[in-house]
Structure formats: C-alpha cells, structure tokens
Specification:
Length: 377
C-alpha cells in the first residue's frame, strides 16, 4: 500500500503497476481516469504513468462510474516537492558559504522572462545552474502536457474552446464565494497572527474591496486565448522525479471542487500559476524547516526568498512560453497572459490562506505574501 495522504488507496503490484481505488465515488467518470486514458492512448504523452485499465460500474441510469484506475509504476527518486526543497536548502546555505550580501543582488520584476544567459552572474554564483536547468525541464514537460491537452479536435470533452459569457458567470460566482469564505477566515483567526503575518493580514483586509473587484471584473471579450482541460491541482507534490526528468500524475483536480467544476475548461496558465505558488511554498518551507541552520536575519532571508522566487518564475515562464508557441497553442497575447497569471495567482493564494489559518497559522504568511506581491504589482 502507498501513502494515505492521497485521495485514493493505492496497491502496488511487483513494483510495476499501481491500482488506485478512489475514496470519493462520483456518479460520473473520474477526471483522473479520463485524463490518464486520454494522455496515454490518444496523445501518447510519455511523462505521465501509462494508463493500463480501470474498474467501472454502469448504474441503472446507464451512468459510467469510475471505481479504480490501474497505471504503470514510475521508478522514481521521490516527488518534486522534496527534490526542490533539498536544492533550495543548498541555495540558502550558499548565502553564508559565499558571504553574499542579499541587498546587493540584482533583481527583476515578477514575470520577467529569463533564459539562462539572461540571468545575472551574481545570481548564478549564488544559486548555481542546476536549479534553473531543472526548472527548464519542468517547464518543457508542463508545456508538452498542455500541448497534448490542447490539440484535440474530435473528443468534445477535450477540444479547446474560447472564453465566453457562461464561463465568466461561473468563474465570478466561484470567486466571490471563495473570497468571502477566506475573508471570514482571516477575520475569525486574526488573533492567531503576529509580526509580518499580522501586517500582511491587515493589508489584505485594507484591500479587500480592490481584490473583490479584481475577481468580478473579468472581461472575457478582451481575451483571445483558448481554454482546455487542465491538470487542475498542479503542484510539486504531483510530480515525480526520475533521473533528470519529471513525470506528472494525479489528475483528479482540486479537492474542494465538484466533479463538474473539475472538468470545466480553463486557461492553461491556471496550472502554471498553481506551480508558481508551489515554488513559493517550497522556498518558504525550506526556510521554516531549517531555521537554525541559516544565520541571516529573517528580513534578509525573506528578501532572498522573494528574489529567488522571481528568478525561478522567470526561467520557467520563458521556457514554457517558447515551447507552447512552437506548438501553436493559443494562450493569448503577452498582456493577456500576465493578466491571467495575476488573476490565477491571486485566486490560488486566497484559496491557500483559508487552509493555513485553520490548520497552520504560522504558515499563513506564505499565501499572505503571495497576495501582497500581486496587489502591489
């Protein structure tokens, strides 16, 4: 049996096959089954566990209900969440080893695209090349996944579609409900916060009307990109590391979403935004889990963290865009892409905030900093 933190119970056979039994059964095909079968059989996307079979029940209304899913077992060295934290720990240890003055490091704006040759020598000296090269590989695999999901013209469950009024109404209703829910969580848990987290929570409340307006002024008529089926819950914990490559798994979608909402076609950059938030989390988790090993002040460590995040985003974003454009997948023009990324990053950080306030108040500073980054951009 595999770990029990997942939304399924998995049995491994001969270290070659994994049979997943879904714990929550829906009166519909499970998205993980649909996506796995589509990517394996129709698109031959190699960087996901191959689909081998499924267990389904046809009910009295002739509805196909997914019970289980069998896939190949990917040999791996663990997930990308653990891998990147180990790499990030080396990066933060380098601050002291190389006696780096954080305040003298060059900086860039968030979403500034960076090829390896664009990265300033001082950043390469601090971070090294390996982290950035791995981000390029991950960006390429992410783009290939979206190219596979965005290149279908027969199966209507997977054909790309444009933004429209119905999608906008669905999105606004979802955002307003979620935002109000998180707003209540901040107000109810205010007493658990202190220091910078408290200041950021006050900033969040001071800007609540501005954030609400951002969520409700989604003008689809200006968006020219396409919407496709997505991973839907894309973060470093859903990615396996094998040698120098990455394999993407678990396509069930957001745990809090209904089965219908998980199948709504969305802009591909929503997955990218989810991964960017995961980068942000991995950076701060590394700091929080190794506090005693870093001799820099919290202020300097946080400054280095945000600077590193911007370069990680820049390197990933450059490689992702180049690979998407080479395949002619329409994700919109430059300003449209930035708008969608900001929108989705804000959505994801607000989503995370409720969880952290209820279960890990000490970590609430991570989504609060993510929210602050966007509203001050």
């Amino acid at each position: 049996f595999m770990g029990l933190e997942q939304s399924n119970t998995s049995i491994v056979y001969n270290e070659k096959y994994v049979l997943k039994f879904f714990r929550r059964i829906y009166a519909d095909k499970n998205p993980d089954y649909e996506m796995s079968r589509f990517l394996s059989e129709k698109k031959e996307f190699k960087n996901t566990p191959a689909y081998l079979g499924s267990i389904n029940v046809i009910d009295s209304d002739n509805v196909n209900i997914t019970i289980g899913l069998m896939q190949e077992m990917i040999p791996n060295q663990g997930d990308a969440w653990d891998y990147f934290q180990k790499e990030l720990h080396k990066v933060f240890m380098n601050l002291e080893h190389k006696k780096i003055n954080v305040h003298h490091l060059p900086d860039i704006e968030l979403f500034t695209r960076q090829s390896i040759r664009d990265i300033p020598p001082q950043i390469i000296d601090w971070v090294g090349l390996n982290l950035f090269l791995k981000l390029q590989t991950l960006a390429k695999r992410t783009a290939e996944m979206h190219v596979a999901l965005g290149s279908e013209f027969e199966d209507t469950a997977f054909t790309p579609t444009h933004f429209n009024g119905d999608y906008t109404v669905w999105l606004k209703n979802r955002m307003i409900y979620q935002f109000q829910n998180r707003l209540n969580a901040v107000e109810n848990n205010f007493h658990k916060l202190d220091g910078m987290a408290l200041d950021l929570a006050k900033e969040f409340l001071d800007h609540k009307n501005e954030i609400r307006i951002r969520f409700t002024t989604f003008d689809w008529t200006k968006l020219k990109g396409e919407r496709i089926r997505l991973h839907g819950d894309y973060h470093l914990g859903q990615i396996l590391v094998h040698d120098d490559d990455f394999y993407i798994l678990d396509f069930e979608g957001e745990p809090e979403s209904t089965i219908r909402d998980r199948k709504v076609k969305q802009p591909p950059l929503k997955d990218v935004a989810g991964l960017f938030r995961s980068f942000h989390y991995a950076i701060y988790a590394t700091l929080f889990n190794n506090t005693s090993e870093y001799r820099y002040s919290q202020e300097d460590l946080f400054k280095a963290a945000e600077l590193l995040f911007r370069f990680m985003v820049g390197v990933f974003y450059e490689t992702y865009i180049l690979n998407i454009q080479d395949a002619n997948v329409n994700i919109g023009y430059s300003q449209e892409r930035i708008f969608i990324l900001k929108y989705c990053l804000l959505e994801k950080a607000v989503y995370e905030l409720g969880y952290e306030l209820n279960s890990r108040p000490r970590w609430a500073i991570i989504p609060l900093k993510g929210i602050s980054n966007i509203i001050n951009l």
